[in-house]
Amino acid sequence: MTDHNPAAVSALAGVKWPVKRLRSGKFRRYHGRSFSGRIFDFGTLLRNLADLFAFGLGLVQSVWLMMRWRPDVVFINGGSIGVPVAWVARLFGRPYLIHESDTKTGLANRLIAPGSRRILLGLPGEGWPQDGRHFVTGIPLRPNFLAAKRAGGAAARRKLKLPKSTPIVLVTGGSQGAAALNRAMLVIAPQLVGQAYVVHLAGARNAKRLKAAIPPRGYRLLGFVGAEMADYLAAADVVVSRAGASTLADLAFFAKPAIIIPNPLLVGGHQLTNAELFANNGAAVVLGESDVSERPQRLLGAINRLLDDKSEQRRLSGALATLAQPQATKQIAGHIMAVGRGQ
């Protein structure tokens, strides 16, 4: 975990057990770039080279922690930090299992999967091996998400001081924001506020810069939202978002009609495959980032059509609910305990 990641810091707020931050190098690749574009991207090459040293430091830290804690089982939730931890766990003969949130396995998990006792999947996807090691568990939900859903949308609106009857459109680009989505929203905001009340999560670094350009009424611009994200999801009628696995799992849990705009440049194109899964199951409206960037009115049209069509909202909600995994935390804990018992 890193201090500059607000989502991680928020998720660990109030944790009572020891939390250690490990260094780990990140191998940066960008989906969709040409081979020559990657070769001559000297900035990325230099960062990758520097991160080789960070990876070595992560190995040393992992050895120290493994010797100090001597865990019975190690659980790894993907990402580059999992590689040194898994390799050291295997060196010390400690069993580990991994969790893959996306529909497409990332490089880190591909590197450590051969030694993993079990591989837990956040999204069902297609083509996972039927080898007895793969289990669809979903992605854990924080307790306040469960509470917000039980309380319902009306309670969330009162808590957040949102309009009682006006349709709420929640727009989120994740904890860091999404530049293409932010630009499109600034173009369509004057027209959209006549149809709905907009809550726009623009990213902690972007909110101040965008504030001067938003409509004075009917539009709430925020940077990063922590625990209150559950209430905003409960209150929303339509959600516009990226296609990160955790975001999609949250949408499925709340069964919120959604327009998803996958980031096409992330490593391995995993947001594209996540979005494809939801589109194939009829669980979301999917727009391409280039469409939104070049023709923001397409996004406005999609939002308005969804707001006006209650039957389509119900259809999407029903399809989303079939992808939800509300017992993910319990299932994952069960697998961890089973591996710890040597099963």
Question: Could you characterize what this model shows?
Answer:
- This protein is 47% helix and 11% strand.
- The protein has 343 residues and is α/β, with parallel strands linked by helices.
- Helix 3 crosses helix 4 (82-91) and helix 7 crosses helix 10 (229-235).
Write the SSE topology.
Layout: H1 6-11, H2 35-39, H3 42-69, E1 74-76, H4 82-91, E2 96-100, H5 107-112, E3 119-121, E4 134-136, H6 143-151, H7 153-160, E5 168-172, H8 179-192, E6 197-201, H9 207-210, E7 219-222, H10 229-235, E8 238-241, H11 245-254, E9 258-260, H12 270-280, E10 285-286, H13 289-294, H14 296-308, H15 310-321, H16 328-340
Parallel strand pairs: 1-2, 2-3, 3-4, 5-6, 5-8, 6-7, 8-9, 9-10
Helix pairs in contact: 3-4, 6-10, 7-10, 8-14
State the main characteristics:
343 residues; alpha/beta; Rossmann fold; 2 domains; six-stranded parallel sheet; four-stranded parallel sheet; 16 helices; 10 strands; 47% helix
